[in-house]
């Protein structure tokens, strides 16, 4: 039988003289479907709705250039020198101000600066997860998180979500099933706002319940919130951390509110956990780049950074509108999607019988790329779904990309009419148009 | 009985509500003695011979400032955007040119850019080491490497070194002992040039033998070479990688040849291993900061970077001379040290009866800080030794620091004359003045 990934591994087995030397965890490291896509999807004739690259064109490069130049001239001996694994103190104070916008009260000592919030995620998993420990995560979930969990041999159990985000009932059931199996849940990993890839937001009325369920079962909550300030209605939701500081580890990032290429993120953790994180970070990278931290710190203090976030929000709302109107115009019956209130992503369910992963090469031939749904599940679900990222291309390109995608789907359906459809597929995650689209 | 570290752990047990949640590996994460020092040692009245911070004062900050400003203005949309986990292609080509200075022939595809070579070390350990696997390392060894090995629950077996570096006989014996115990050696971790902390260099005549022994026993070699271009006689030794490309993973860094605060390092690995490294790096940080890679790339192509390395070399040689002459002038009988030919460090063995870790608080009271020897061993050795870093302070401060240190040691000896010495201590690592000092 053809297990996914097996042919490649067999190839590696015969070619790689080091194969017998790898750690057990290395077997779980496989190239993500999305990463494999980047090369083809970056050809100019292809409209890429696949990547999650932020739209940077709105950044004030001239003033940034001057500021960074000045920083190096005036403060280069600090900016180019080692710092602490904990992060630059002034930046950690400013990060507390940023988090205050979401109702968080925090002490700068409890903030650890990381090389993007991906590193925060990796460090949190490092300090908490032994092989075989269970991590609960929405289904679907962020592909980079699944990668980190796999790297530490944690097992992901997905929790269903609907248009209002994580379902508390499903959370209770998942915990009960894991506990019944005698397994240990280490934490719930959740992206409450403008979810990647599902696009939905955890309803405010559900937040206390989710926290309460986790607390009752002794389960830590890891709140990943890169998109929280990118709500299209200008609404910022209260962070889970704001109401349960002792049981929530919060991950933040400047990748979407400022610039991804600087790789500056952070973890806010309960005090004792923070100490472990600093130790873990020290053995991972010694310290985050000092220059990058000082650039962000200076940017926050000298630029109208909230004005810039507003500019980003407007750019993304325009793109979201382009994606949604094109979906409404072109998608064949039997497709469903949600209309996100913020962030970068629409989660599309295609008509029955279509396998989005199998369809991808044909889509690329038709000059449109997307991320197929299976990459966002640790358990093989998602084959009838895909993620549309509207963050990077222009609205015109997005409309054209969605039009091409709709044609690819229609071609698939025609093929099925002629040759019969594929097997019915299980579907998970929010499928129906969310209440927002009503 | 009072196991080291136990009191602190007991304290943590009562204070940290998350204690039962941590992964097994987290128990091995303890604050390094050196890190605990940085806070006190950074007070201006203290001469710190503890840290390994490079001397940056020689950097051309004005032209760097202009270049980086220009980079952001002209290329900001790339510099501030996500890149690949593999690293910027142009930089990987330039890295191959840098390595060519050490006799290495490599393809840019086999280079992975990392967030400092600490991350390279962490990634190599991640892909190779299961808990309980053995890593061979010189005794003493780099404290950050010991931290990464502990984070992956690998067990370090130290291999003795002398003034000519790692001893091949000791290597053979260590391998035999590990194999006899039915344990698995995953790799030999070695710093062949201007060792941290021992200051010695692996004699060229020993290099082929070390490679041969490892190859014969199926043991990978991890060559960590941050100081290779900092030889005071302008001599660059052939890298281990240059003669055994299939069995050596090479770690390089711009932290000592350019600027540590950018955190740009790299791994050169056999092709199949490189693929695993990219996957591991992707789940660790997604990608290294793009801006930093472009800064290094531009610096390499527009600056006389080898001239800058020469400037660094001269600055460090002057500091080495200051340290050695002060040691000769002030140290009491019974102290031994080596005279390094490059790099940042002198390894000092103090007279019998003195415990360098216990002495440290008294030294700081006398306004001098150092790194005590035990931090460089995974097995508790090193208590009669300490590392002097001459890289950062001015020659005057180094001389003053060594003078203060000598006085502290003399005070200890006087105390012992009055109250009796401590117990005799096992000594390891190069102790006698090396042939260089003859």
From TrEMBL, chains A, B:
Transmembrane segments: none
Gene Ontology terms for molecular function: DNA binding; pyridoxal phosphate binding; transaminase activity
Record has rRNA processing as a keyword: no
Cofactors that this protein relies on: pyridoxal 5'-phosphate
Domain Aminotransferase class I/classII large: 73-405
Domain of life: Bacteria
Keywords: Aminotransferase, DNA-binding, Pyridoxal phosphate, Transferase
Region feature Disordered, mapped onto this chain: 419-438
One Gene Ontology term from the biological process aspect of the record: alpha-amino acid metabolic process
UniProt key word Transport: no
Family: Belongs to the class-I pyridoxal-phosphate-dependent aminotransferase family.
Subunit text: Homodimer.
Alphabetical list of PANTHER family matching this protein: AMINOTRANSFERASE, KYNURENINE_ALPHA-AMINOADIPATE AMINOTRANSFERASE, MITOCHONDRIAL
Protein known as: DNA-binding transcriptional MocR family regulator
Organism classification: Bacteria, Bacillati, Actinomycetota, Actinomycetes, Pseudonocardiales
């Amino acid at each position: 039988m053809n297990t996914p990934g097996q042919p490649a591994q067999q190839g590696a087995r015969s070619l790689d003289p080091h194969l017998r030397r790898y750690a057990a965890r290395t077997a779980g490291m496989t190239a993500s479907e999305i990463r494999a896509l980047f090369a083809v999807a970056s050809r100019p004739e292809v409209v890429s709705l696949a990547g999650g690259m932020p739209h940077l064109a709105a950044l004030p490069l001239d003033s940034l250039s001057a500021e960074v130049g000045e920083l190096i001239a005036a403060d280069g001996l600090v900016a180019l020198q080692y710092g602490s694994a904990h992060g630059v103190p002034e930046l950690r104070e400013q990060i507390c101000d940023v988090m205050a916008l979401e109702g968080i009260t925090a002490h700068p000592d409890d903030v650890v600066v990381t090389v993007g919030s991906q590193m925060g995620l990796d460090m949190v998993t490092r300090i908490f997860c032994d092989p075989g420990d269970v991590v609960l995560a929405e289904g679907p979930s962020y592909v980079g998180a699944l990668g980190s969990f796999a790297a530490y041999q944690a097992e992901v159990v997905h929790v269903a979500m609907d248009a209002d985000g994580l379902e508390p009932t499903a959370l209770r059931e998942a915990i009960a099933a894991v506990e019944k199996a005698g397994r240990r849940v280490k934490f719930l990993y959740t992206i409450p706002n403008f979810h990647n890839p599902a696009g939905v937001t955890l309803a405010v009325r559900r937040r206390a319940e989710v926290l309460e369920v986790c607390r009752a079962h002794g389960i830590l909550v890891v709140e990943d919130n890169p998109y929280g300030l990118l709500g299209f209605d200008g609404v910022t939701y209260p962070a889970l951390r704001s109401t349960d500081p002792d049981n929530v580890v919060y991950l933040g990032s400047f990748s979407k509110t400022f610039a991804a290429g600087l790789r500056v993120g952070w973890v806010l953790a309960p005090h004792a956990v923070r100490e472990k994180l600093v130790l873990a970070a020290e053995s991972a990278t010694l310290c985050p780049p000092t220059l990058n931290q000082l650039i962000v710190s200076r940017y926050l203090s000298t630029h109208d950074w909230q004005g810039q976030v507003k500019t980003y929000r407007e750019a993304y709302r325009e793109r979201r509108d382009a994606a949604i109107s094109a979906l409404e115009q072109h998608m064949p019956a039997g497709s469903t999607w949600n209309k996100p209130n913020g962030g970068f992503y629409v989660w599309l369910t295609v008509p029955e019988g279509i396998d989005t992963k199998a369809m991808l090469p044909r889509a690329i031939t038709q000059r449109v790329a997307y991320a197929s749904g299976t990459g966002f599940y640790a358990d093989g679900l998602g084959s009838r779904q895909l993620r549309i990222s509207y963050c990077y291309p222009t609205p015109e390109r997005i409309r054209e990309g969605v039009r091409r995608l709709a044609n690819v789907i229609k071609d698939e359906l025609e093929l099925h009419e002629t040759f019969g459809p594929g097997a019915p597929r299980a579907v998970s995650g929010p499928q129906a148009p969310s209440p927002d689209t009503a």
